[in-house]
Amino acid sequence: MPYLEQFMQQWKAYLLNEFTAHGLGYLETEDGDFFDIKANSLAYFCWLRTTSRADNGLDESRDAIAWKMLERQLRELAKKAEKGTFYLVSKLHLEESQIQISLNFSYDDEQHIVYVS
Length: 117
Description:
Blueprint: H1 2-21, H2 33-51, H3 60-92, E1 105-108, E2 113-116
Antiparallel strand pairs: 1-2
């Protein structure tokens, strides 16, 4: 699923910006980009949980839930992007390279999740 990789890279760019803005360090390993994105996402969620009002009785398990929900959203959006791109290419005679999808991420500190749009 090429869009999933693209969307993960957009999330990584968002994370890098957030880490830089808040003086956090992004960890890169030899285990691969997906592992790095997940590990850094969990660290980011932990940081958000402890610095926002989401720290009302929530523990590390909620960080894992936030990651799983984000990953699920990205996977579903990737599926929709695949179908939508196919439709646009076939109906409007566009080339796939002409279609660019940019995601927006927003953190809900009450629910301790990230919404993707």
